[in-house]
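Standup notes
- HV: blocked on the assembly model, inputs below
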Amino acid sequence: MSELALSLKNLVKDFDGKRAVDNISFTANRGEILGLLGPNGAGKTTTIRMVMDIIAPDAGSVEIMGEPFSEKMKDRIGYLPEERGLYRKLKVMDTLLFFGELKSMKAAAVRERGRRLLKQFQLEGYEEKKVEELSKGMAQKLQFIMTILHDPELLILDEPFSGLDPLNIELVMDIILAHKRAGKTIIYSTHLMEYAEKTVDALVMIDKGRKVLDGTLAAVKAEYGQKFVKVQYEGDARFVGGLPYVRSCRDSGHEMEVELDDLSKCEQLLRDLLGKVAVKGFQLSEPSLQNIFIRKAQEGKGA
Amino acid sequence: MKKIIAVIKKEYKIIVKKKSFIIMTVLTPVLMAGMMFVPVLLMKMGRTEKKIAVADYAGGYYQELSAKPAAKKEVKKGGIDLDAMDSPQMPEEAGRITFQAVTLEGRDAAALVKEFEQRVLKKEIDGLLLIPADVKASRQVSYYSTSVSDFTTIKFIESTLRTAISKQLLLEKQIDPTVVDEATREINMETFKVKKEGTTKSDSGMDYMMSLFMIVILFMVLINYGQMIMRGVLEEKTSRISELLIASARSTQIFYGKLLGIGLAGLTQVALWILLGAILVSRFSGMIDAAILSFLTPEIALYFVVFFILGFFIYAIPYAFIGAAVNTDQEAQQFASVLSVLIIVPYILGISALQNPNSALTVGASLFPLFSPILMFMRITAALPPLWQVLTSIGLCILTIWGLAWLGAKIFRVGMLMYGKKPSLGEMLRWIRYK
């Protein structure tokens, strides 16, 4: 049995002469959470659709659990597409029955597990309601239940957080973690790097159809070193960007992430800050994925 | 296989639980019942209690007319009373006629007519029958009424009088009364329609109406279920459920499952109609026109089912194409109207086919697979075509369906995942070549 849950080799896809995915390769280990990161339009969804055999790649290959994609494989994967839809006229339990049976589940098993999941998602008592009667948040939950209903070995989630309210984001995070603990593999794409940062074991960054970076979260962060300082402050700190020993600075108004030439310069930074702004917090930090991504994207442009 | 069944179940459930499905299922037999009962009811209501005054100058004929047992008999279809057979029958279509004797008291015929003309116009009575004293020799009677085109009534009066006169003449010649009765017995004529599968009592007007009615239903269900599949596919496409489906099962499983599920729902509806129709016919056969009874044979029901199934697949697959190829309801409607024309053409051809079911044009068109579901069925209701033609049309339909299903699965696979722009015909042709 392959240790790899997913392996992409040199995937290429053109749309009307434009290269949407350009020679992307990466692997995902079993039992891990892999984040597919990148801004909107980077090619994440196209990549995922090729993995799911929804569109055929122009070149390259995909292997799942060490095998090429097959019909049987579909039952072992839980897929959440970027754009979601449900049959509006179908009842909640009928919806689960349909998608469960479509994944080769027995009706009784769907009912049993479906009820449990509905309860877990606080949708108890909605079994006989039509989908069109559900609120948007409830429909999103139902969509998630559909994705994990058949207890898939591999979850592929395309932008799972988009359009969710904070409570549902928490819920989705919990599910992702619970699946990881149960030994499943989760691959999800997102342009929200803050969320990824908290959950992924490994990541792949994509920009303009190309892979710009991949590796485990720890390795990626280590590569960019401990040269970052996070400062919480009140006042005008624009001058920091101009300091000679500051390589880069990402200012969010009340918090800034400062990259130093050398970690030894952090004391000097604190001295320079004091008196000019009210410092509320000051700590050494790892670079954020956001920061790394911006750097990588700029490198790409420069090259 | 299991996945196809899952799709079939889902499609079936969605349709059968719709309100419109239930309404249509109930309403159509009600309409059908209306078709069956109304003519008889109209006959009963419209023709009851016709009052005819009889000015019997010759004497004895009034008694003869009013004594007819059938004249007072309740209209009862099919129940020809054998006891009444030896005298002229009051035609059932004429309803009840009451004859009233006019007291003559030496009044002159011209004055009498004048007076009764007024009474007829005032609708106090429906008519005046004037039997002159010399009727035996002249064979001349007069009937005054607002409606002189009521042939059944007039025929009845004529034949009753003729028989009465003949009887009198024969009796005057000392002929045995039983022989007289036998000699003057009325002839009863029924019309029969000659069909291959057996000759049945029939009425061509009713037959025509029933054929038309059955074909309108066939036409309606075919368009209805075709559009249903189109909207279903389009809904999956616009709501992007299609992606989830393709990620769970083969596109062919989804496509064929959908066709079969919706087809089964349609078949359920047709079966319920036939069942309800059969109940109506067996429970109320006494109240239904015999022509209709003879028309609604199990054979016709069987052919209806067969041609519904063939027609469903022939039209539903192109409707599914449309749903998969377009992106909006408006676009879908545009294409759908083109397709509707394909269904209307055989329908229009068929109206002439009913009158002339074996013309070369009709025979040819009824073998053309896109037309035969409606046209061949129409010919079958009008006059059973040669069996080889029926079988050929069924065979051609099955071949066409096979081809369409193959083509449809391909177009469906690509179209379902193609969002945004409207595909050109060239592109759609390219889809077919995809693996």
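- HV (later): unblocked. Chain B is about 65% helix and 5% strand. The radius of gyration of chain B is 31 Å.
- Next: hand off to the docking folks.
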